[in-house]
Each structure stands twice: as C-alpha cells, then as structure tokens.
Amino acid sequence: MKTEKFGSLKRRAIIYALIIGTVIVLAGRLFQMQILQRIEYDMKATDNSIKSIELQPLRGIFYDRNYKVLVSNVPAYTIRVTPAYYDTSLNKILETVIGTEPGYIKNLLQKNRIYSKFLPVKVRRGVDFRAIAWFEENSEHLTGVDYIIEMQRFYPEGIIASHTFGYTKEISPEQLAKEKKLYKPGDYVGHSGIEKTYEKLINGTKGFRYVLVDSRQRQISRYHEGREDLQPIKGNDLVLSLEASSQKVAEEEFKGKRGALVAIEPTSGEIIAMVSSPDFDLNRFSYFTPKTFLDSIYNDPFTPLFNRATMSVHSPGSTFKMLSAIAALDMGLITTSYTTTCGGGFTFGRFFKCHGNHGTINVVTAIEKSCNTFFYKLIYKIGIEKWKEYAARFGFGSVTGADLTEEAPGLIPGENYYKKIYGENWPRSIMASLGIGQGEVSVTPLQLALYASLIANDGKSKTPHVVRGYIDDNSEKLVPLEYKEINTDVSQSALDIVKNAMYLVVNGHGTATHIKLPDIAICGKTGTAQNPHGKDHAWFVGFAPYENPKIAIAVLVENIGFGGTHAAPIAKKVIQAYMNSFKGEGKTFQDEIAVVKVD
After folding, report:
1. Which of 88, 214, 372, 470 is the most buried (most CB within 10 A)?
2. What is the DSSP string of 15-72?
3. Phi and psi of 44, rounded to 5°?
4. Among positive and negative, which fits the CA dihedral 400, 265, 561, 387?
C-alpha cells in the first residue's frame, strides 16, 4: 500500500508540475503576444483584411509676380515593395523592368531595414507607363510589389531658376528623426531653394484610401464604401516676386558664362530675377536620379550646384566706390566742391596706380570716370572703422536674410581684422586698396543688388525675398508675407549726389555709355575685380529709371575681363525686359494685393 500511495503521489506531483508549467508558458506567451507585441500583431491582423493606400497631396505650385505658372505638378508612377511580403528573388527582374543597376533593390531594402517591414519602400519614382503595364499583367506573381500615383515637379514656362526654385529629395534619416509625425521613409521634401525654405507651407497633408484585401494582398473592395477614406489636402500655392520674361532674358544671357545676376525692386526688396550660372536641370531631380548623373554634377569643376548669386564672394572692385563717397558726404568730410588731383596714381608706402590721369576732379566726376586716385585718398579721410560702419549699414559683412537656404556673409575688414594678422602696427597702406573695392573686402552678388536698391530708394528697402506670399485655399486670397524694413539713415543729399554720378556713368561721359537707352534712364557703375587665379571678374551695379527707380541690379561675370564690356550689357537687357513687361498691361509697379482666383 505504501508503495502504491508513494507512486500515486509522485505521479500526481508530476502531472501538477506539467499542468502548472504549461499554464505558465501559455500565460507568458499570451502576455508577450497581447502586451509586448500587441502593436505588431494588430498590424498583421489589420493588414490581412484592410489595407491603407497612401494618397500624396499636391505640392503647392509657384506663380510669378504676374501669376504665370512657373512650377506645377504632373502625375508620376512610383513602384513600391513591402518587405514583409516581398520575395527578394524578384530583385533582378524588377531592376530590369524599372531600369536600375544590379543590387539597387537589395541595397535599398538594407538601408530601410531599421523601419517596420510592413511599411512600403519606394523603389523607383517616375517609372514609365510600360513598366506599370507590365506590373498589371504580372501582379499575381509580384507579391509585396505595388505602385502609387504621386506628383512630380514640372516647369511649364521653361524657366530654369534651379538655385532659386530648388528641388525635392527623398527625406534623409536625420530629417526623419526630427519630423516623425509629418513624414515617412521614402517621402520627398524640399532640399534646396524655396522648395526647402517653404516646405511646411507647400507640402500639404497626406490622405488615405482603405481597401479590403485577401491573403495575397489582392484588392477585393473599398472598405466601408470609402466612407472612412481621408482625402489629401493640397499645399499652399506661392506667389513669387520673379518676373518671367526678365528671368528668361537673364538666363539666356548667361548661357556659356559663369557668374550671377540679382535684380531687385528697390521699394519692396522683391527679387525680380536671380541667376547662378552654370545651373542644372531641375527635371533630373523631380523623379529617379541616376547615380551617374549625380556623380557627373557633383564632380563638375564648374560646380553647377553652387549658388553663385548668394554664396560666391569676390572683391566688388569699383562698384564699391559709391560706398566711400556716401560715407564721406554723409559725414560732412567732403562736398561736391571738394576736389583732388589725379596724376595717374597715389603713393602711400608704395605707388597705387590709377587707370587714367584725370587731373583735378570732384566726387561726381570721380565716380563718373571711375578714378582710383580720388578713392585711394578718400578712405584715409573716412577712416577704416567708419568705412566699415557704413558698409554694414548697406548690408555688407553679414547675410541679408533672404528667404533662400544658403547665403555667405562676405567680409568687411576692420582694424581688429588686420591686428590679428599683422599686430598693432599693421600697414596702413592696405587701406588704399579697400577704397576701390579691392584687397580683403568681399561681397556676394545679392549683397551688391541690395546695395544698389538702397542707393536707388533713398537709403531704404526691405529684406530681399523671392516669395511675395501664399494663396489661402479657403478664401482664395493672397496672404502677403512680411519682411524686415532696412534703413541706412544716410542723408538724402549724399544719396542724391551719388545717384547723379551714377546717371552720368551711363548717360554722360562715364564707363558705361554704350548701354544708354533713349527711353529708360539707366544709372550704374562698372567694376573690374582683380583675380589672382586668372582673368578678372566683371561687375555692374545699377538701377532704372533715374526718377522713381523700379529695378536695381547686380551682375557678375567671372573670369572674363572688364565690367563695362561684359556685365553692363547683360544688365541693360534685363532692365529693358522688366520695363517692357508692363507696357500695355495696365499694371503698376507696386500693385496692390488683390484677390486671386485659382483655376
């Protein structure tokens, strides 16, 4: 009996242990599935019956100042794969169909492995219809592969403006980490230019269409007949300050040249035209961009991706002579009665050459004839720190704050700058070169265009900008954007004297008389910046008309020679194009904000 009882108790204990152990294992597994892995299994369960199809919103389009469409959208097909269902043995076939290099899909999936395997990965954007037709014919064998219709950028006016418009690019992991709520892997976002600056305004909000699918992810029907669908919300349209015909002329004039052009409306700070040359084809960035193309553009010695309008810094040459003149006149150091004698140069420690022998001249004639000697001497009357202060008033030595993504501040050297290099007893002879815009002083074309605007508009303007405002989709009204006022606090008399001198440069006996027009009074100043690495750079700054200026402009042509020969004629053509754009249209230059209907 004892043996049977013992055996019975032992068996019972074993059975209890097995039962308890089984319960513990099952409970643990249930806890893992229902608590720890609940989200993952919820996704799987939902995915077996309901599938959400992402609907991309229309990106806001860009109008020019006269409401011509400069940047719009066209439909494009995007092939996607969902790693959870995709058979990687299809890689070679799919790569052949969509035209990518071998290993492309494998590398793409490897890069996206950090994200959920149920999240579709965009494999190729902008595929042609033949690839979509092939997909439809073979969809039964392409588990985990689908396509969506997205929108890609289109440029109907044929205007390039690549550095101004910018382009969209697939979001980087770094950006995605900061913007998880707004974007998903594979989304395209503004990468440069105003596409980047105004990304949040023009991007829009995604929508979703829900469909019922079977175990092979084949669509059966709409979920709840589409009542649960969320429609995408279009991004806001932007109204730019660019003027299409002026921009076209500027781009045409820079074909085959290196340099930049910026034209600004003086009263408002609105950028009428902006060119950086060489540029690049934005269409190549609006869909799939081959690595070979990217390599060619990144390795191009002429750096087409570099925005010369806002980032290139060069000595301004003689275009900077007006700054010294304004400073001296405003400080009361000179008047139009003050004269100096030019005998072909100036000696301060060494001889500084002038390009002519101008005799006795005043400030007006010195600007008209571009006499170096006058300004070699003048900067010593002003003093380097005061000269630097006036340069800062006109926006030099710091970024302008324009609504673009990249901008260089340039350099306006002062005493501290030279003390760091040479010590307390820095050579004062350096100042002579600064007086004519040479030496260490460096500026951007955008800064010089702002400088010309401030001279033209009596020392006042606004922060340069490309975007006037956006169109509110509900009210269909233009919502103007506000920009900071700029005031140099320079006397009107000083500016009037300099403006008169700039008028004589073109319409008197100055260095740019060959661009004189019978119906438009152009005022300007040529400049030739020394270049130790090759031919000199050509500059021209100016404005028009003399009375009530409507356009101010800065033109830089690199490695070509004299400003009067190469830069001034370009400015003339852009000025003509802008002024002619208003003829017969009944528009005013400073038109009022109006209600705009969007078709």
Report:
1. 372
2. HHHHHHHHHHHHHHHHHIIIIITHHHHHHHHHHTTEEEEEEPPPPPPEE-TT--EEEE
3. -65, -45
4. negative
Angle at 439 between CA 438 and CA 441, to 5 degrees: 80
Read off the tokens for 215.
């175990």
Write the CA distances from 237 to 62, 169, 269, 467, 510, integer angstroms.
6, 19, 21, 11, 45
- Asked if 273 and 597 count as a contact pair (C-beta separation under 8 A), the reply is no
Specify burial of residue 42 (Cβ count, 10 A radius: 0-12, 13-18, 19+). exposed
Please work out, in degrees rounded to the nearest 5, the angle formed at the alpha carbon of residue 178 by the alpha carbons of 174 and 179.
115
Which tokens is 423 given? Answer: 């010590």
* CATH code for the domain defined by 52-240: 3.90.1310.10
Domain ranges of the chain: 52-240, 244-279+308-580
Yes or no: say if 469 and 481 are a contact pair by the CB < 8 Å rule. Answer: yes
The proportion of the chain whose per-residue pLDDT surpasses 90, expressed as a percent, equals: 54
Give the per-residue SS3 of 327-353.
HHHHCCCCCCCCCEEECCEEEECEEEE
- The β-bridge partners of 236 are none
Tell me the pLDDT tens digit for each residue of 259-284: 999 999 999 999 999 999 999 888 77
- The DSSP annotation for 172-223 comes to PHHHHHH-TTT--TT-EEE-SHHHHHTHHHHS-B-EEEEEEE-TT--EEEEG
Using one digit for the tens of pLDDT, what is the confidence trace for 507-539? 999 999 999 999 999 999 999 888 777 788 999
CA distances from residue 39 to 44, 52, 113, 510 in whole angstroms, order as listed: 9, 16, 18, 77
Sheet containing strand 523-529, edge to edge, reads 271-277, 259-264, 551-557, 537-544, 523-529
Averaged confidence pLDDT in the chain: 87
The reply to whether CATH 3.60.130.10 applies to domain 244-279+308-580 is no
| Cα 469 from Cα 478, distance rounded (Å) | 6
Q: Do domains 52-240 and 244-279+308-580 have the same CATH topology?
A: no
Helices (H), 234-332: 244-253, 291-298, 308-311, 321-330
Query: Using CA atoms, how far apart are residues 38 and 36, in angstroms rounded to an integer?
Result: 6
